[in-house]
Amino acid sequence: MRHRPTLFALIASLTLAVAVPAGAQQVTLTWTAGGAGGGWYAIAGGLATIINEAEPNIVIKVVPGGGLQNPAMVASKGAEIGWGLPFLNAAAYRGMAPFEKPLEELRALAGGMSMNYFHFYVDADSPLNTMDEIFGQKKKLRLAISQAGSSDTWVLERVLEAYKTSIPDLEKAGFTFLRGNYAFQANQFKDKNADGVFTFLAIPGAAVIEASVGRRLKLIDFSPTALKHLEQFGITAGKIPAGTYEKAANTKDVVTATAGSVITVHKDMSEDLAYRITKAFNDNYLKARKVHASMEPYEPKDGPTGCGIPLHSGAVKYYKEKGLLK
Hints:
By secondary structure, the chain is an alpha/beta fold.
């Protein structure tokens, strides 16, 4: 998952030293985010500033993390706050691979932030046009994907579950899976070593633009079969608007699966603290939008959606006050 860095990424210190009002008890929290310099790291730093401005006695230190490690960090109380992806949150909560046991301690303060989109594309001249053909009928393909254990590949595996198949089954049927990072995927497609790519990016994805240089592509719609199966993991249907990729053959919006970023905490966080944090960034959502380009669409109504885990009672209290939950 990639984002464009913004001014907030240049915050020199993410440990916020502030004057605390007399009599107020200062609370220092750790937020496990993404890689230093990446989108999650920058957004967490910006939101930490906004929360601190609204609640001067809440101090947040942002540390590097990642989608796979953050759920365990929060569940073990190694960090009080963590970024999460809804589908990995759901897997962690249920104890599904790659998690060894259920992490039922996880709760959410907000989802629907910093949306990313699954891209499934093939050559523009390919006779294949649907997931039903490719995965349902097992029309063999050389597909570039991320490494095993990545969030992108985890979702591909769930898509294949919807078609009652798997990567090993497809390999037996003649599929080839080429594994590597986003640049690797784009190059494999450009060099015609891969017939298609399955990847997870904010739009427009730089790797998709790069892949389209010298080889025209078309994006494949996610099928109702796949989307229905993905709902249980907090993955929602969305659209990649027509024209997002100038060199793509698509002339209409492409139906896809989307997932946002989720702010997660431990169930033992006090209801008051969870409420105050949730209120701080939601009441100042116009500021939050400016933290990062991928945050621009966020509104408080998005907060209770696409979390993959239950909301914390403090967050529930806030959203009910605002009429966003019944």
